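Subject: sequence -> C-alpha coordinates, single chain

Hey, anyone have a minute? Need the predicted structure for the following. Not urgent.
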Amino acid sequence: MSKKQYAVIGHPIGHTMSPFIHKRLFDLAGIDADYSALDIAPESLETEFEATLKGLDGYNITIPHKQAIIPFLDEIDDKAKMYGSVNTVLNRGGRSKGFTTDPDGFIKAIEAAGIELDGRIMILGCGGVARTMAYEIALRGKPFEFAVRREDVGKAGLLCLDITKKIPDAEVSFGLMEQFIGTVDVLINATPVGMYPNVDAQPIHNCAIGRCAAVFDAIYNPLETVLVKRAKANGAKAEGGMSMLVWQAVVAHQHWDGSQYDKKDIDQLCLDAAAQLK
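Reply:
Had a minute. Here:
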Protein backbone atom coordinates (compact mmCIF):
# COMPACT_ATOMS: atom_id res chain seq x y z
CA MET A 1 0.00 0.00 0.00
CA SER A 2 1.49 3.34 -1.04
CA LYS A 3 2.20 6.04 1.54
CA LYS A 4 -0.59 8.61 1.88
CA GLN A 5 0.17 12.16 0.75
CA TYR A 6 -1.02 15.34 2.46
CA ALA A 7 -0.02 19.01 2.40
CA VAL A 8 -0.84 22.53 3.46
CA ILE A 9 -1.23 25.22 0.79
CA GLY A 10 -0.92 28.98 1.14
CA HIS A 11 1.03 32.01 -0.02
CA PRO A 12 3.44 32.72 1.56
CA ILE A 13 3.79 29.44 3.42
CA GLY A 14 7.25 29.48 5.04
CA HIS A 15 5.97 30.34 8.53
CA THR A 16 3.50 27.46 8.86
CA MET A 17 3.48 25.09 11.84
CA SER A 18 1.25 22.62 9.98
CA PRO A 19 3.91 20.08 8.90
CA PHE A 20 5.22 19.73 12.46
CA ILE A 21 1.74 19.34 13.98
CA HIS A 22 0.24 17.04 11.35
CA LYS A 23 3.27 14.75 11.12
CA ARG A 24 3.05 14.23 14.88
CA LEU A 25 -0.69 13.51 14.64
CA PHE A 26 -0.07 10.92 11.91
CA ASP A 27 2.61 9.32 14.10
CA LEU A 28 0.27 9.24 17.12
CA ALA A 29 -2.40 7.54 14.98
CA GLY A 30 0.09 5.04 13.53
CA ILE A 31 -0.54 6.22 9.96
CA ASP A 32 2.26 6.19 7.40
CA ALA A 33 1.92 9.51 5.57
CA ASP A 34 3.94 12.36 4.12
CA TYR A 35 2.94 15.97 4.80
CA SER A 36 4.48 18.90 2.95
CA ALA A 37 4.03 22.67 2.59
CA LEU A 38 3.15 23.98 -0.88
CA ASP A 39 3.50 27.66 -1.73
CA ILE A 40 0.81 28.35 -4.33
CA ALA A 41 0.29 31.89 -5.61
CA PRO A 42 -3.35 32.96 -6.10
CA GLU A 43 -3.00 33.10 -9.89
CA SER A 44 -1.73 29.48 -9.90
CA LEU A 45 -4.45 27.94 -7.74
CA GLU A 46 -6.63 26.56 -10.55
CA THR A 47 -3.64 25.05 -12.39
CA GLU A 48 -2.21 23.50 -9.21
CA PHE A 49 -5.62 22.17 -8.19
CA GLU A 50 -5.72 20.04 -11.33
CA ALA A 51 -2.02 19.19 -11.50
CA THR A 52 -1.19 18.63 -7.81
CA LEU A 53 -4.00 18.93 -5.28
CA LYS A 54 -6.29 16.34 -6.86
CA GLY A 55 -3.51 13.77 -6.48
CA LEU A 56 -3.26 14.20 -2.70
CA ASP A 57 -5.24 12.24 -0.12
CA GLY A 58 -6.07 15.51 1.59
CA TYR A 59 -4.74 18.97 2.35
CA ASN A 60 -5.09 22.00 4.57
CA ILE A 61 -5.57 25.55 3.36
CA THR A 62 -4.41 28.85 4.80
CA ILE A 63 -4.36 32.46 3.61
CA PRO A 64 -5.19 33.48 0.90
CA HIS A 65 -7.01 30.40 -0.44
CA LYS A 66 -9.74 29.62 2.12
CA GLN A 67 -12.49 31.14 -0.03
CA ALA A 68 -10.83 30.85 -3.44
CA ILE A 69 -10.62 27.04 -3.25
CA ILE A 70 -14.40 26.57 -2.91
CA PRO A 71 -15.40 26.78 -6.62
CA PHE A 72 -13.01 23.95 -7.48
CA LEU A 73 -14.38 21.48 -4.93
CA ASP A 74 -17.12 18.94 -5.60
CA GLU A 75 -18.74 19.47 -2.21
CA ILE A 76 -18.41 21.41 1.06
CA ASP A 77 -20.07 20.54 4.35
CA ASP A 78 -22.77 22.64 6.02
CA LYS A 79 -20.46 24.42 8.45
CA ALA A 80 -18.07 25.43 5.66
CA LYS A 81 -21.09 26.77 3.76
CA MET A 82 -22.16 28.87 6.73
CA TYR A 83 -18.70 30.34 7.17
CA GLY A 84 -17.98 30.61 3.45
CA SER A 85 -14.52 29.23 4.18
CA VAL A 86 -12.63 25.94 3.78
CA ASN A 87 -9.38 25.00 5.51
CA THR A 88 -9.40 21.20 5.06
CA VAL A 89 -10.06 19.05 1.99
CA LEU A 90 -10.58 15.30 1.75
CA ASN A 91 -9.99 13.62 -1.61
CA ARG A 92 -11.73 10.27 -1.93
CA GLY A 93 -13.12 8.31 -4.85
CA GLY A 94 -12.21 11.05 -7.30
CA ARG A 95 -14.20 13.70 -5.38
CA SER A 96 -13.01 16.61 -3.24
CA LYS A 97 -14.94 17.63 -0.11
CA GLY A 98 -14.16 20.77 1.90
CA PHE A 99 -14.52 21.45 5.63
CA THR A 100 -13.71 24.22 8.07
CA THR A 101 -12.09 22.96 11.28
CA ASP A 102 -11.30 26.31 12.93
CA PRO A 103 -14.68 26.56 14.74
CA ASP A 104 -14.45 23.05 16.21
CA GLY A 105 -10.81 23.69 17.11
CA PHE A 106 -11.90 26.71 19.15
CA ILE A 107 -14.60 24.77 21.00
CA LYS A 108 -12.34 21.80 21.71
CA ALA A 109 -9.58 24.12 22.99
CA ILE A 110 -12.05 25.87 25.31
CA GLU A 111 -13.32 22.53 26.60
CA ALA A 112 -9.80 21.15 27.08
CA ALA A 113 -8.94 24.22 29.18
CA GLY A 114 -11.94 23.60 31.42
CA ILE A 115 -13.54 26.92 30.46
CA GLU A 116 -17.34 26.94 30.32
CA LEU A 117 -18.98 29.23 27.78
CA ASP A 118 -21.49 30.67 30.20
CA GLY A 119 -22.35 33.90 31.98
CA ARG A 120 -21.05 37.17 30.54
CA ILE A 121 -18.92 36.39 27.46
CA MET A 122 -16.86 39.13 25.83
CA ILE A 123 -14.84 38.91 22.59
CA LEU A 124 -12.10 41.46 22.03
CA GLY A 125 -11.96 42.41 18.33
CA CYS A 126 -14.28 41.77 15.37
CA GLY A 127 -12.03 40.33 12.64
CA GLY A 128 -11.98 36.87 11.07
CA VAL A 129 -10.96 35.00 14.22
CA ALA A 130 -13.59 36.83 16.27
CA ARG A 131 -16.22 35.96 13.67
CA THR A 132 -15.43 32.23 13.91
CA MET A 133 -15.67 32.26 17.69
CA ALA A 134 -18.81 34.39 17.70
CA TYR A 135 -20.75 32.03 15.44
CA GLU A 136 -19.89 29.04 17.60
CA ILE A 137 -21.01 30.85 20.75
CA ALA A 138 -24.24 32.00 19.08
CA LEU A 139 -24.97 28.48 17.80
CA ARG A 140 -24.86 27.31 21.43
CA GLY A 141 -27.50 29.86 22.38
CA LYS A 142 -25.16 31.91 24.56
CA PRO A 143 -25.43 35.74 24.68
CA PHE A 144 -22.16 37.61 24.15
CA GLU A 145 -20.69 40.97 23.26
CA PHE A 146 -17.83 42.38 21.21
CA ALA A 147 -15.44 44.97 22.65
CA VAL A 148 -13.78 46.88 19.82
CA ARG A 149 -11.66 49.92 19.04
CA ARG A 150 -13.48 53.11 18.12
CA GLU A 151 -12.40 52.79 14.48
CA ASP A 152 -13.97 49.30 14.28
CA VAL A 153 -17.46 50.23 15.48
CA GLY A 154 -18.94 50.13 11.96
CA LYS A 155 -17.35 46.75 11.26
CA ALA A 156 -18.65 45.37 14.55
CA GLY A 157 -22.17 46.55 13.75
CA LEU A 158 -22.12 44.79 10.39
CA LEU A 159 -20.81 41.59 11.99
CA CYS A 160 -23.62 41.64 14.57
CA LEU A 161 -26.16 42.05 11.76
CA ASP A 162 -24.61 39.15 9.83
CA ILE A 163 -24.72 36.89 12.89
CA THR A 164 -28.38 37.66 13.68
CA LYS A 165 -29.30 37.18 10.01
CA LYS A 166 -27.85 33.66 9.94
CA ILE A 167 -28.76 32.81 13.54
CA PRO A 168 -32.01 34.74 14.21
CA ASP A 169 -32.17 34.02 17.95
CA ALA A 170 -28.56 35.11 18.58
CA GLU A 171 -28.10 37.61 21.43
CA VAL A 172 -25.11 39.77 20.44
CA SER A 173 -24.09 43.36 21.10
CA PHE A 174 -20.95 45.48 20.92
CA GLY A 175 -19.24 48.31 22.77
CA LEU A 176 -15.97 50.19 22.96
CA MET A 177 -12.94 48.39 24.37
CA GLU A 178 -11.92 51.59 26.16
CA GLN A 179 -15.23 51.55 28.05
CA PHE A 180 -14.79 48.00 29.37
CA ILE A 181 -16.78 47.87 32.62
CA GLY A 182 -17.97 45.22 35.05
CA THR A 183 -16.91 41.63 35.55
CA VAL A 184 -16.63 39.07 32.77
CA ASP A 185 -17.04 35.30 33.07
CA VAL A 186 -15.20 34.48 29.81
CA LEU A 187 -12.92 36.95 28.02
CA ILE A 188 -11.73 35.95 24.55
CA ASN A 189 -8.94 37.88 22.85
CA ALA A 190 -9.34 37.73 19.07
CA THR A 191 -7.00 40.67 18.39
CA PRO A 192 -3.28 40.41 17.48
CA VAL A 193 -2.29 42.53 20.51
CA GLY A 194 0.44 40.66 22.40
CA MET A 195 1.62 38.61 19.42
CA TYR A 196 5.32 38.17 18.68
CA PRO A 197 7.35 40.36 18.35
CA ASN A 198 5.24 42.80 20.45
CA VAL A 199 5.09 40.41 23.36
CA ASP A 200 4.85 43.07 26.08
CA ALA A 201 1.55 44.45 24.77
CA GLN A 202 -1.88 43.55 26.13
CA PRO A 203 -5.35 44.40 24.76
CA ILE A 204 -6.91 45.60 28.05
CA HIS A 205 -5.67 47.17 31.28
CA ASN A 206 -4.59 45.15 34.32
CA CYS A 207 -7.66 46.23 36.32
CA ALA A 208 -9.93 44.83 33.60
CA ILE A 209 -7.99 41.55 33.48
CA GLY A 210 -8.55 41.29 37.22
CA ARG A 211 -12.32 41.26 36.63
CA CYS A 212 -12.19 38.18 34.34
CA ALA A 213 -12.97 34.70 35.66
CA ALA A 214 -11.58 32.94 32.57
CA VAL A 215 -9.48 34.05 29.60
CA PHE A 216 -8.85 32.50 26.19
CA ASP A 217 -6.28 34.19 23.95
CA ALA A 218 -6.25 33.16 20.27
CA ILE A 219 -2.57 34.17 20.00
CA TYR A 220 -0.21 31.16 19.97
CA ASN A 221 3.14 32.95 19.64
CA PRO A 222 4.17 33.35 22.43
CA LEU A 223 2.66 30.29 24.10
CA GLU A 224 1.56 32.50 27.02
CA THR A 225 0.85 36.17 26.30
CA VAL A 226 0.98 38.86 28.97
CA LEU A 227 -2.82 38.62 29.07
CA VAL A 228 -2.72 34.89 29.83
CA LYS A 229 0.06 35.26 32.42
CA ARG A 230 -1.72 38.07 34.28
CA ALA A 231 -5.04 36.25 34.21
CA LYS A 232 -3.39 33.16 35.72
CA ALA A 233 -1.67 35.31 38.34
CA ASN A 234 -5.13 36.56 39.32
CA GLY A 235 -6.34 32.98 39.79
CA ALA A 236 -8.38 32.88 36.58
CA LYS A 237 -8.48 29.95 34.18
CA ALA A 238 -6.46 31.00 31.13
CA GLU A 239 -5.38 29.36 27.88
CA GLY A 240 -3.40 30.48 24.82
CA GLY A 241 -4.12 29.86 21.15
CA MET A 242 -1.66 27.00 20.54
CA SER A 243 -4.31 24.57 21.76
CA MET A 244 -6.79 25.94 19.20
CA LEU A 245 -4.18 25.56 16.44
CA VAL A 246 -3.53 21.95 17.42
CA TRP A 247 -7.16 21.00 18.03
CA GLN A 248 -8.29 22.30 14.64
CA ALA A 249 -5.59 20.06 13.14
CA VAL A 250 -6.99 17.14 15.17
CA VAL A 251 -10.43 17.77 13.65
CA ALA A 252 -8.86 17.70 10.17
CA HIS A 253 -7.50 14.21 10.89
CA GLN A 254 -10.93 13.10 12.08
CA HIS A 255 -12.28 14.09 8.67
CA TRP A 256 -9.39 12.41 6.85
CA ASP A 257 -9.15 9.09 8.65
CA GLY A 258 -11.35 9.11 11.77
CA SER A 259 -8.36 9.16 14.14
CA GLN A 260 -8.97 9.74 17.86
CA TYR A 261 -6.41 11.16 20.29
CA ASP A 262 -5.83 11.29 24.05
CA LYS A 263 -5.95 14.75 25.63
CA LYS A 264 -2.61 14.00 27.30
CA ASP A 265 -0.96 13.53 23.89
CA ILE A 266 -2.52 16.74 22.54
CA ASP A 267 -1.38 18.73 25.61
CA GLN A 268 2.17 17.48 25.02
CA LEU A 269 1.95 18.32 21.31
CA CYS A 270 0.95 21.89 22.23
CA LEU A 271 4.08 22.23 24.37
CA ASP A 272 6.31 20.66 21.71
CA ALA A 273 4.83 22.89 19.00
CA ALA A 274 5.55 25.96 21.12
CA ALA A 275 9.17 24.82 21.55
CA GLN A 276 9.43 24.20 17.80
CA LEU A 277 8.03 27.68 17.14
CA LYS A 278 10.87 29.23 19.12
